[in-house]
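Researcher: Good morning. I'm working through a list of sequences from a screen, and I'd like to move beyond sequence-only analysis. For each chain I'm collecting a predicted structure so we can compare shapes side by side. This is the next one on the list. No need for commentary yet; just the structure.
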Amino acid sequence: MNTNTYTKPVILIISGPSGAGKTTMSNALIEAVPDTMIAISHTTRKPRPGEISGEDYFFVSKAEFQDMVNRGEMLEYAEVYDHLYGTSRKSIEKSFSEGKNIILDIDWQGARKIKSIYPDAISVQLLPPAEKESENRLISRQQDSEETIKARMATYKEQMSHQGEYDHIIINDNLKEATRQLISILPYN
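Model: Good morning. C-alpha cells for this chain:
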C-alpha cells in the first residue's frame, strides 16, 4: 500500500477505447492510493445487470439529464452510443471538500472540457495492446450485445486519433505494470 500524501487533491482523467481496462485500472488505483475515489457519472442508459444507481452511475432520464445541463450542473457531457453521459460539478466539489483525489472515467471530449476548466488535471489515455484485444475484452466481459460491441469498436480509431491531447499514454498489456505506471504519474509531496 502506498502511504505517500498529495499536495492537493488531484483530478485524474482516464480515457480510452472500450475494453482498455479503465474500470479495472481505476479500481486498482483506489486500492493502491489512499483518499482516491471514482467520480460517479450520470447517464441516460439503462443499468446493466448488477449495476446499482449511485454506485456505478446515477441513472436518470433524458429529461432529468437535460434539466441538469440547463441548470449548469454538468461540467462535461456527451452523447455516446445514443445515451448521454456526464460529470456533475457536485461530484468534483465533493471530492475536493473531502480532500480526496478523483478519477474521471471519461472520453476524449470530456477530457478536453475538464482540462479547459481544471488545467492541472492529469490526463491519461489507457490503451489495450491491440484493437483485437479490445474487442476480445468486450466480448469476454459479457455485458454488451453484439450490436453494442460493433458500435464500440467502430469508434476505436476515432478515440485513438486523440492521443496527442493526453498528458500520458499507458498500454495496458499487463495490469500490474500498467497500474505501477499510473501510480508513478501522480504527484507526491
